[in-house]
Amino acid sequence: MIPGDATIPALTFSFEDGRPKADGSNEVYRDELTTEPIQIYVKGSLADLKGPMSVPIPFEYKLLIWAAGTLLFVTAAAMFVRWMRKRASADSATHAEPALPPHIWALRELDRLSEERLIERGMIQEYYYRVNGLLRRYIELRFEVMAGEQTSEEFLHMLQDSFALSAPHKAMLQQFTSACDPVKYARQIPDREEIEWVGRSAREFIMQTVPTEAELAAARERTGDLEEVAA
Q1: Which pLDDT value is given to residue 186?
Q2: What was the pLDDT predicted at 5?
Q3: Phi, psi of 134, rounded to the nearest 5 degrees
Q4: How far is residue 113's CA from residue 119's CA, in Å, rounded to a whole number?
Q5: Which distant-in-sequence residues (6+ apart) come within 8 Å of 114 by Cβ?
Q6: How many Å from the N-terminal Cα to the C-terminal Cα in the chain?
Q7: Which spans in the chain are helix H?
Q8: What would the DSSP string read from start to end of 17-69?
Q9: Most CB atoms within 10 A, among 55, 74, 172, 230?
Q10: What 3-state DSSP class applies to 100?
Q11: Strands 4-8 and 12-17, how do they pair?
Q12: Residues of the chain predicted below pLDDT 70
């Protein structure tokens, strides 16, 4: 408000009185009241606006923010380390495996897995993880598809769209995956016959999909071309 004389204008109020009268009538009484104008004198203007105030953050909130930031950093670091390990493992596998045809490599790995006697040592879940991963890797090498990092659902969906596998082989892999998943993820304990079937079906699938001599020759030719490019 600007300093100086000012007038508060008159205000008019309307009212009603519906209470019963002393003479017994119920007529509603209506009227108005008007105030007198009021002269005032404003001595000074309002104070200037103050700048924004900083609200102090409680210590508990600071601790919570610090803990959340630390957890986020540790999680990101762990994910990065895991990614680096996977990349290094994939690189080493890529350099170690192409020396052998996929079926020979896979059959040798199955033999090595049997020699570890995981089943006899009671490490059933570990055995299922290993044999499932081994067969996935063989499919990658043999048919040049990405199968190792896929979920079971993605893997089976990829099989249905693949022209490289016959219908019986697709059905065999679907049955194999359905047998492995309950043990891998739900920790079910299969009986001896089921365990033997998993290992036997993996070996049978590899044996039934051994590449022909023409396919092996084409693979060797592609490998030679890649080596010349790398050189």
Answers
A1: 86
A2: 76
A3: -65, -45
A4: 10
A5: 199
A6: 86
A7: 59-96, 102-115, 124-143, 152-161, 167-185, 192-208, 213-230
A8: E-SPPTTS--PPEEEEEEPPPEEEEE-SPPPPPPPPPPPPPPHHHHHHHHHHH
A9: 172
A10: coil
A11: unpaired
A12: 1-3, 21-22, 42-51, 53-55, 83, 86-98, 218-220, 222-231
Distance CA(77)–CA(133), nearest Å, equals 26
> CA-based angle 179:82:147, to the nearest 5?
35
CA-to-CA distance for 137 and 142, rounded, in angstroms?
8
Residues in the chain: 231
- The amino acid sitting at 4 is G
Token digits of residue 78: 């762990």
Closest CA to 110 of 134, 76, 133, 141: 134
Number of C-beta neighbours around residue 100 at 10 A: 13
- The three-point CA angle 162-167-170 to 5° equals 65
- CA dist 137 and 228 (Å) reads 25
b/e 22-37 (16+ beta carbons within 10 angstroms → b)? eeeeeeeeeeeeeeee
Count of other CB atoms within 10 angstroms of residue 219: 17
> Mind listing the pLDDT tens digit for each residue in 201-217?
999 999 999 988 877 77
